[in-house]
Design brief:
Layout: H1 4-15, H2 53-65, E1 69-72, H3 75-89, E2 97-101, H4 106-115, E3 118-122, H5 137-146, E4 153-157, H6 168-177, E5 181-185, E6 208-211, H7 213-216, E7 224-228, H8 233-246, H9 253-266, H10 269-289, E8 294-295, E9 301-305, H11 313-322, E10 329-330, E11 334-338, H12 345-357, H13 380-385, E12 388-392, H14 423-431, E13 436-440
Parallel strand pairs: 2-3, 2-4, 4-5, 5-6
Antiparallel strand pairs: 1-7, 6-7, 8-9, 9-11, 10-11, 12-13
Helix pairs in contact: 1-9, 2-9, 3-4, 3-8, 5-6, 10-12
Length: about 450
């Protein structure tokens, strides 16, 4: 498969022109990649109005994914905002309603602040972690039926940060039944398209989804895709406008080139996965045999239940780090390991040996933290634009959360802006190591129905 963006950038660098244009490093610098870092010079095309090499490269990606596909150099967060904007354009109400799984990434909240849509949170029947939201098709149907008005979209995160997926095919059928768009944050699952059969959200019936290419594919950090169902050409027509609304006018050509090169890689990705997945399954099997309890069903993510080992997740992560192994994420409950076909059997074996060397202790009690549904007092937009201050968590009882962002990873908030923090929520925040919170300065704010 051709790589027009990479070929152009490389050819431009080889000409060694006098660069009387941005960026200021002029193709010279200590990183060694500056010569390939260009701007929209003649022939380089434009990301949000492509007619040349970027259009050709995105067409290649669209062919691989089997649906209209656009590039982002600002991660899935950029695509999330664009998806929600596109969904709102299909609604008749000025302030449309969106049903969202509670484990939404902070970029969803940022979009809610900017676009001011109404949110109805969906929690699912079982929610043992703020990172999980195990919704079923029946759950979503009930949420649609019990909503005060018809939502314009259902927004889900699948796979979630722990590697758990939901029944997207069943949920998509429900959404189509009621004429509601299905939007999926598939940031962790770009590779799912290349499994046999495909488990990609668009193939399972989603109308819009985003993939963080850099999370599971050999793409530079920030490379992402916005995918649109071929059955919704009305959304595709406005996709570039939606991305332009939230994106930088100076996209990284290093990231664009890596997305372009990934097309050639993906042409053979199914074969790579078929060779690599048995190694991962063997790795899982050995951990299970060693007494580990694993969470989730995402093929390229191994999530260790730390409590079942009698350990704290941070403790296991420290043991791995001491052996030169860095995990994706760890908290008190779990350790998340992400793998890809770029890795070797020897690397997997090295990780396994360290994990097996950690002695098993008496399993800790299962997480008994309550499933909290905080009282909503203000919309996210109202809360963020109100006066606020940062306080120690212990002083936040009864205060209104005004914080939109949490540390990344995982960038999923136990309490979101506009909700009241009670004693039970304080216990949850402390459990997850959150020591301070931004809250409204006006403690007299009264609750209102929303």
């Amino acid at each position: 498969m051709k790589t027009p963006v990479y070929d152009f950038v490389r050819a431009y660098a080889q000409k060694n022109p006098v660069r009387m244009h941005m960026p200021g490093h002029k193709g010279i610098g200590p990183l060694g990649v500056e010569r390939l870092d260009i701007t929209e010079v003649a022939g380089a095309d434009s990301l949000f109005a492509p007619e040349g090499i970027i259009a050709e490269s995105e067409a290649n990606a669209s062919e691989l994914f089997g649906c209209p596909t656009c590039y982002s150099t600002e991660g899935s967060s950029h695509c999330v905002r664009a998806m929600l904007f596109l969904a709102m354009q299909t609604a008749k109400e000025k302030r449309p309603l969106i049903l969202a799984g509670r484990n939404a990434h902070s970029s969803f909240l940022g979009a809610a602040v900017l676009l001011d849509f109404e949110i109805r949170w969906m929690y699912g029947s079982e929610r043992s972690s703020y990172l999980a939201c195990n919704l079923t098709a029946a759950d979503v149907e009930q949420e649609i039926l019990h909503a005060a008005r018809k939502p314009c979209a259902v927004y889900l995160t699948s796979p979630d940060y722990l590697g758990q997926t939901v029944d997207l095919a069943g949920i998509a059928a429900v959404c189509k039944k009621y004429g509601v768009l299905l939007l999926v944050d598939n940031a962790h699952g770009a590779y799912l398209k290349f499994l046999s059969p495909s488990r990609h959200p668009i193939d399972l019936g989603a109308d819009l989804c985003c993939d963080s290419a850099h999370k599971t594919l050999p793409v530079l950090t920030g490379g992402a895709y916005l995918h649109l169902s071929a059955s919704r050409p009305d959304l595709s027509l406005r996709a570039k406008d939606a991305l332009a609304l939230f994106g930088s006018t100076s996209p990284s050509y290093l990231i664009l080139a890596s997305l372009d090169l990934a097309n050639a890689y993906l042409a053979d990705h199914a074969a790579r996965l078929n060779r690599f997945l048995p190694l991962v399954e063997a790795f899982r099997g050995k951990l299970l045999a060693a007494g580990y309890d694993l969470v989730g069903d995402e093929p390229l993510k191994i999530t260790v239940n730390a409590a079942s080992r009698g350990r704290d997740g941070g403790e296991i992560a420290d043991r791995l780090r001491a052996a030169g192994i860095e995990c994706e994420f760890a908290d008190r409950d779990a350790v998340v390991l992400m793998v890809s076909p770029m890795q070797t059997a020897e690397e997997l074996d090295r990780v396994r040996k360290v994990l097996e060397s950690i002695p098993q202790r008496t399993p800790k009690r299962e997480n008994t933290l309550p499933v909290i549904r905080p009282e909503r007092v203000l919309s996210p937009r109202e809360a963020v634009f109100a006066g606020s201050e940062i306080l120690p968590v212990r002083e936040c009882v009864g205060r209104i959360c005004a914080q939109i962002s949490v540390s990344c990873p995982p960038a999923v908030a136990p309490v979101v802006c506009g909700e009241k923090i009670d004693k039970e929520m304080i216990a949850i925040l402390r459990h997850y190591g959150i020591k301070a919170c931004r809250v409204l300065t006006d403690t007299r704010t009264r609750s209102r129905n929303a």
